[in-house]
Design brief:
Length: 101
């Protein structure tokens, strides 16, 4: 799914550059190839797997310990989203430092 979204984003950029005339489509392709490193795909897939694990683990934790009525479930899901966002930002920093340096 991550690879598909990357390909759709690249194709969308190419289509916009071709339709709007902001840049020549050949320049767009050359720009992509200029800084392309195959490790970028590996890096993206590693981050995707780690982030998916974080989101599902935190959401499952808060969902499992939700008690009471539907208001408590809503509060637990809000806490899960906030906690997931914070942990993802921290792990993004850690993974970037480990994998790109």
């Amino acid at each position: 799914l991550a690879i598909l979204s990357i390909l759709i984003g690249i194709a969308g950029g190419y289509l916009i550059s071709a339709l709007t005339g902001i840049m020549i489509p050949d320049d767009y392709v050359q720009g992509l190839l200029y800084d392309f490193r195959p490790y970028s795909i590996t890096y993206t897939l590693i981050k995707m797997a780690v982030f998916a694990f974080i989101i599902t683990s935190i959401s499952a934790f808060y969902g499992y310990y939700a008690k009471g009525n539907s208001l408590e479930v809503g509060a637990a899901s809000t806490k899960a989203v906030v906690a997931s966002s914070i942990v993802i930002m921290i792990f993004n920093l850690i993974l970037t430092q480990i994998l790109l340096i």
